[in-house]
Amino acid sequence: MSGEDDLIGTLPSGFRWGVGSSAYQIEGAVAEDGRTPSIWDTYAQSPWSIDNGDSGEIACDHYHRMPADVALIKELGVDTYRFSVSWPRVQPRGRGGVNSAGIAFYDRLVDELLNNGIDPWLTLYHWDLPQHLEDAGGWPARDTAVRFADYAMLVFERLSDRVRYWTTLSEPWCTAMHGYVHGVMAPGRRDPEAGMAAAHHLLLGHGLAVRRMRELAPSETMFGITLNLSTADPATPSEADREAARFEDGLGTRFYLDALVHGRYPEDVLEALARQGIRLPSEPWDPSIIAAPLDFVGVDYYFGTRYSGVEENGNAVEHFGMPAFRKVPFGAPSTVLGWEILPHKLTELLVRIGRDYPGLPLYVTENGAAFADVPDETGFVRDDDRAAYLSAHIAATAAARQAGADVRGYFAWSFLDSFEWAYGYAKRLGLVRVDRETQARTIKQSGLVYRDIVERVRGGRR
Ligand code: BGC
User: Fold this and answer.
1) Domains annotated on the chain, with CATH
2) What is the per-residue pLDDT across 342-380, written as a single tens digit (0 to 9) for each?
């Protein structure tokens, strides 16, 4: 047995295992049953926004193939399916009553999962804001937080009798930073002040939604949020690099977790933003709303990061209105997204979150890799690279548990080869291959390896 196998063998038999997806990445059917455009439908139409001019118009056609897809999830042997609900499908104008035909899809999905012995793990927001709300100001507008809580209640009223795990937001950092500061994801704005307002309103929307849902929740219901987290090391021990790493850790990790857990934003981040003239539109009562009690935190991990405060030539890094620092690679092998493969950084991250924010159960809600898959004539992909990536990161998760982190589950990302946002379809992360021409699904070698790991741990010790 390898060290990796030994570590994986320490996971308890009751450990939760899942696969994940998100609505816009797999559903397709963008104009069916009353759905209106989301910001991603709009963004996909602007030239050069998405590789190859791709869009989620058809995606994996999951909207029409849902029962067969649930059967595949069952074949993967997992106990949990993490999916997201499309806001413009359920509440097409971003306000007002529920769209019955839209919510009916999730109603059927939840039943199908439960009938197959799979727990639904529902995310309310994975990046597909109704375009109507973006037109009204989007996340930089305070009203969007209120709208989000109303939408959450529409879904909650309909599904809380069967769904136990509720995640408000997936990766709010990505929405705020990539969507509103860097302009590389929908809605493609480049406005640091708007981006930080978006970050605040995302968290406010989360807090408002959790409070309202919890008032009506059956006692066993669990509420959480999923954050994309990373480690942030200084590239060298220099003062400039340590400051860069501290700021990025502040903006990416402490900004969210300090607010959610302690009800305050980190002072050093607020000061650095203020030096750029950026102030959060936070009302005095907002922090206590954001810090609504949580039952779990989802950690999405893909890579570790190192930062330098200076350019390679020694000049200061240019700021563009927002403190920004240079990423310095570790020199490790990368996936085809250029993301370095650093499983030990996942261990470090989980241990650190467990130590700095104690008492919060953690779940690795996303972890996975894009590789250049080569199918054989039957569509089967022998993706030993992806299988190795998953095993190494599952072992890293087990190592974090051994070191004291309260990690209770691991969800591989992703279930299917999907619409990969700005990368379009060229980058594949699925455990199941999707043929883009025929929509045929084939479980990859990594899916089989994952299934074996799950089976082995389940049969092991508790
Ligand atoms: C997102 C996923 C996406 C993955 C790879 C994550 O940050 O949550 O939706 O598929 O990155 O692009």
Assistant:
1) 2-458 (3.20.20.80)
2) 999 999 999 999 999 999 999 999 999 999 999 999 999
